[in-house]
Each structure stands twice: as structure tokens, then as C-alpha cells.
Design goal:
- Helix 1 (about 5-20) packs across helix 8 (about 370-390), helix 3 crosses helix 8 (about 370-390) and helix 7 (about 310-325) crosses helix 8.
- The strands form 6 sheets. The chain has a 6-stranded mixed beta sheet with strand order 1-2-6-3-7-18.
- It has helices at about 5-20, 30-40, 115-130, 155-160, 210-225, 275-285, 310-325, 370-390; strands at about 50-55, 60-65, 75-80, 100-105, 105-110, 140-145, 170-175, 185, 185-195, 200, 235, 235-240, 240-250, 255, 260-265, 295-300, 305, 350-355, 365-370.
- A hairpin with a 2-residue loop joins strand 11 (about 235) and strand 12.
- The chain has about 400 residues and is an alpha+beta fold.
Length: about 400
């Protein structure tokens, strides 16, 4: 390994080690300390730093740098979420999930892939742009956000709705193994609540069991909608559903008067939230259960999109990937939900890309290949040079 490559690797590993050591697990999704870390790194580089918090403790940091002519295109925004899921049982981790360690060329730690690897990359990228004298044209914004793991409104969505982020090209840090994801499925989270009347378990016929009603409602949805979703496809993209939570009742010897299920429905880019919600509501209304005995609540709902493989930003990243990796980029099929979906209706170019394998996220002993980190740095700096140029 030559000296420049070794310095790059050392910088990225040090950043990622620092970031893993700062807990940002959701819940509660406290991102204040990690945003302070970013500010300490980037403020000396001349970035304009702003914090946006609509709900404590979810902090969002914006770092912006302009060229001499900031009104000149393009306006580019980098975006990465800084919160993580909980580590789960410590027994399933080989070591402390908040203390990075390296083994066999991989760096282990909570969030190493999803998505603190991309966070370390974006911090390095911002500093490297400063070292190269800034940008020749357009403007660059780095956004480090929370509330992503909750699919909540207090992170990227808030920044978009307040017009804090208004880019021509949005580059979202995501574990794509340095390939490109330019399509996104819509996501809809629902809560189905069934109501009944309580009673003694020794005389269940005198009561109305809410759990029984919930089971009947879910069975109706399974027959009328869920079984048919596997046949809905748009190219390689699939329409899916998952019942992720069921809860209800107070005690084993009490007939429950309330029960609920939470449902995750992923939509094709051609499907929309309002129509998918109406489809489920219609199936419930046709289930035969009394209309006042259940209710359907939309918790989260955003539409998907299909990107263009010939966009200005996609071309720059495609050429950078080919130059760095010696191969053409792969265009991936979406599985998870990323924050680019909040810009689906804005007619901008949205690119999800970054180091790390998607299968590593949200699992015990999460890790990232260090070579993917260094490759990602070369890809990103080459793409940015193509898009906005450097002054040095």
C-alpha cells in the first residue's frame, strides 16, 4: 500500500471509529453529540454550519460551501443518516458494539455499514474538498440527519419541507457496495386496531374478543390483497407487505377489548400511497366486521420513484466507479427505504450510493470492508471533481 492510500485508510478508519463510539440508537435517536462532532471537524474548513431540530433530541446538521458563483449549476446535496438501530443482546456481539475493532480487513461496530461508514466518508469528503481549495462552480451541502430509522418527519423530511435542502442532485449515503441505486419503492406503515368488549375468560361468550376480530381482519386482508402482491412487479422491483407487530390484551384470564397490528407495505414506483391505503380500507370494509369495530391509521406514507440512468450525476458517478473499480456500475433493485423518497415529487436527480453491504445492516457483529471505504472515497472525490471542479 502506498503512502497516500495508507493515509486515506487511516483517516477513514479513525473517523468511523470515533462515530461508532458515539451512541445514536433509536429509540431515542439522540443525534446531538454526533452532530457536535461533525461541527468540530468541518467548521475549521470554512463550511457554514447550521443545526435544525424540530423535536429533541433529534439534531440535524447542515454544512454548506459555495463557489464564487453559487447560483451556477449544479446545486449538490449529500445526505446521510446518523442514527442507528439498537444493538440487541450483547451476547450475540463478539465485542462491545460501540467500540470498533478490525479483523480480516473488516471494521466491526454498530452502524459501521448502516450508515456511519457513509458518514465517515462524507466527513472525509468535505475535508478533502477544503484541502483542494473549494469548488469552482455551483454549491455543495452536506446534511447529517436523524430520525431515519423511525421513518420519521424530524430529519430529512423536515429539511426538505422547510426548503433547507433544495438540490439539483441529491446523493444519499447508503450501503450499496459502491454501486448505484436510483429507484426507490414507496413505503407505507399502517396501524390496524380492532375493538371489542372485555369480560372474564371463564365466560368468553359474554364478551367480544378484540384479538379474535383482529385475526379475522388480517385473514381477510391476506386473502383479498396480501396473497396477490407477489404478482405485482415493475421490472425487477417487487410489491411487498409485512405484518411486523401485533399486540393486545391485558391478562391471560381477561377477554381483550383492544388489539392492534402494524403493517409495512412497500409500493412499486407506479403505485401511490393514497390508492394503496384505499385498497386496504376497502378490503377491511368488505370483511363482514362491524364498521365501528376497527380503524385503520396511516403512520407513514411516501411514494417511490424511478430515476434516469443518463442523469448528469449518475454519469459522473458511473465514470468514477469505472475508473476506480475497473468495471461498469451495477444498478441495484431497491429493498430498504432511504431518505431520498422525501424528494420523489421534486423532479431532481436522486442517487443512493456508498460503502458497505446492505445485508450487514441491522444485524449483530455489523461490519464493513475497509477497502470499500477507501474505494468509495476515490469514487466520490472523482465524481465531485467532474460535477463542480476544484480550485487547486
Amino acid at each position: 500500500m502506498n503512502r497516500i492510500k495508507a493515509q486515506l485508510e487511516s483517516s477513514l478508519v479513525n473517523f468511523l471509529t470515533d462515530l461508532i463510539a458515539i451512541p445514536t440508537t433509536y429509540p431515542p435517536g439522540d443525534t446531538e453529540n454526533i452532530c457536535k462532532y461533525v461541527e468540530e471537524r468541518l467548521k475549521p474548513c470554512g463550511y457554514q454550519i447550521d443545526h435544525y431540530m424540530s423535536c429533541s433530541p433529534t439534531d440535524n446538521l447542515i454544512a454548506r460551501i459555495d463557489s464564487v458563483c453559487p447560483s451556477e449549476s449544479p446545486s449538490i446535496a449529500f445526505n446521510v443518516h446518523v442514527d442507528t438501530v439498537e444493538p440487541g443482546s450483547p451476547a450475540v456481539w463478539e465485542g462491545d458494539p460501540y467500540q470498533a475493532h478490525i479483523r480480516d480487513g473488516r471494521l466491526y461496530g454498530l452502524g459501521s455499514t448502516n450508515c456511519k461508514g457513509s458518514m465517515a466518508l462524507h466527513i472525509w469528503l468535505a475535508e478533502e474538498i477544503y484541502r483542494r481549495g473549494g469548488i469552482k462552480r455551483g454549491s455543495l451541502t452536506f446534511s447529517f440527519v436523524g430520525d431515519e430509522e423511525a421513518l420519521g418527519p424530524n430529519g430529512t423530511k423536515m429539511l426538505r419541507d422547510k426548503s433547507v435542502l433544495t438540490p439539483d442532485i441529491l446523493i444519499v449515503g447508503a450501503p450499496t457496495s459502491n454501486d448505484l441505486l436510483i429507484d426507490e419503492r414507496g413505503v407505507m406503515w399502517l396501524r390496524l386496531t380492532a375493538h371489542g368488549t372485555g369480560g372474564h375468560a371463564g365466560d368468553p361468550a359474554s364478551a367480544d374478543n378484540a384479538i379474535d376480530r383482529l385475526v379475522r381482519l388480517l385473514s381477510s386482508l391476506e386473502i383479498r390483497i396480501f396473497q396477490k402482491l407477489s404478482g405485482r412487479k415493475q421490472g425487477d422491483i417487487s410489491s411487498t407487505v409485512n405484518v411486523g407487530k401485533i399486540y393486545g390484551g391485558t391478562n391471560t384470564n381477561v377477554v381483550p377489548e383492544r388489539a392492534a397490528a402494524e403493517i409495512d407495505r412497500r409500493l412499486l414506483p407506479s403505485e401511490c400511497v393514497s390508492e394503496a391505503l384505499a385498497e386496504i380500507q376497502t378490503a377491511l370494509d368488505e370483511s363482514g366486521e362491524p364498521k365501528d369495530s376497527y380503524e385503520l391509521e396511516l403512520l407513514v406514507g411516501t411514494n417511490g420513484f424511478r430515476g434516469k440512468s443518463t442523469g448528469f450525476g449518475v454519469n459522473a458517478f458511473s465514470e468514477a466507479i469505472t475508473k476506480t473499480l475497473g468495471r461498469d456500475p451495477n444498478f441495484l433493485t431497491p429493498v430498504g427505504a432511504f431518505d431520498g423518497r422525501h424528494f420523489a415529487a421534486d423532479n431532481i436527480e436522486i442517487i443512493n450510493t456508498g460503502p458497505g453491504e446492505s445485508s450487514e445492516g441491522h444485524g449483530p457483529n455489523e461490519s464493513i470492508l475497509i477497502t470499500e471505504l477507501t474505494d468509495a472515497a476515490e469514487i466520490h472525490i472523482n465524481a465531485i471533481e467532474s460535477l463542480v471542479g476544484f480550485n487547486s
